[in-house]
Amino acid sequence: LQEQPIQVREEVIGLLEDREQARFIIDLLPYDEDVAGGLMQKELVKANVNWTVNECIEEIRKQAEDVEKVYAVYVVDDNQTLLGLISLKNLVLARKNTKIGNIYDEDIHYVETYRPVEEVSEIMQRYDLEAIPVVNVQKRLLGRITIDDVLDVIIEKAEEDIQAISGITGEVEEDDNLWQQVKGRLPWLIVGVIGSLMAATVIRVFEGELSKIAALAMFIPIMGSTGGNVGIQTASLIVQALADKSGLEISWKERLLKIIVIASLNGLIIGLLAGLYVLVFSETQLVWVVSLSLMAVVLLASFMGTITPLILDRFGINPAVASGPFITTANDLVGIGTYFLIAHFLLKM
Length: 349
Fold this sequence. Notes:
This protein is mainly alpha-helical. The protein has helices at residues 6-15, 19-28, 36-39, 53-63, 88-93, 117-126, 147-165, 178-205, 207-212, 220-244, 252-281, 287-314, 325-348; strands at 46-48, 72-76, 82-87, 111-112, 131-135, 141-146.
C-alpha cells in the first residue's frame, strides 16, 4: 500500500470489513518496513500506573483473544507514556489490591519508531529480550516487537555475514541470473589472484635461496595456510564482538597485549612442532628458519586479524569482510615474505 497513490490506499482500506485491522494498517503506513514502526505489532497488554493488580489481571483477560503471546504487561500513565513493565510472575505473586505503581519495574529497554530493525534485533539479542516496546518521540507507547518479528532480520544478517566471509559482495541468491552471480563472486576472487601473484613475485625475489636449498620450497604452503588460519580465527572473534558490542570495553592496549600473549604461546607451540618435524625429516639447517618463521607468522597474522576488522568498522565497512579472502590473501603474502626474509638472514650467518 505504501507504494500506491493515496486514492488507491483509501479505496483498499475502505474495502476492509474489519475496522480494527483498517486502523492498524493506517497507523503503520507512515513507517518503512526496515524501521521499528513498520515491524511493530499494535496488540499488547498495558496497564495504567494507578490501577490495582486485580484491574490489571482483568485487562489481560479482556485482551487475551487479541494478543497472541503475553510476555509482560507495560505500565503507562494517563498520557500513554511508557513508565516500565511488570513480569507475569510478579503480577501473579502480588496481592490483588496492590497498586501497579508500587510493583512495576522502571528498568525497561525500548526502541523508537524510526530505529532501524537491525539495531532492534541487536538490542533484543544483547539483552535476551522476548519482546520490546516501541515508543514515539514523546515516549508514548505505540506497540511492541517480539523475537518472532525480528527472526527474519537475524537470519538475513547471518546470511549476509556468511556471504561476506565467503568473499561474496552484495546479496547473491541461488536463483539469481548468471551475470549477477558472477558479479557477486568475482571481486574477491580477483583480489585473491592479485595476492597470489604478489606472493609469486616475493618467491621470485628469493629464488637464489631456493636454488641453493630446494627444501625451502617444502614449507611455503605451511607459512601461507598458517597465517590465513590464524588471521581468520582472530578476525572472527573481533567481528563477533563488534556485532554484539560485547568485549569492546577494554582498551586497545589491553586487547593487543592479550592478542600478543595468545599468539606468542600458539606460535611457540607450532614453531616447536614444526622444528621437530624438520629436524627428523628434512635438512637440519632449516630448523631455526622454519620455527622462527612460524612464530613470526602467527604473531603478524594475529595482529592483522585484530586490527583489520576494527579499521573497517571505523570507516563504516562491513567488518565480516575481513574474515574472508582479504585476511587470507594478506596473510599468505605476509607469511611467505616473512619466511624468506628470515631464511635469507639466517642462512647467510
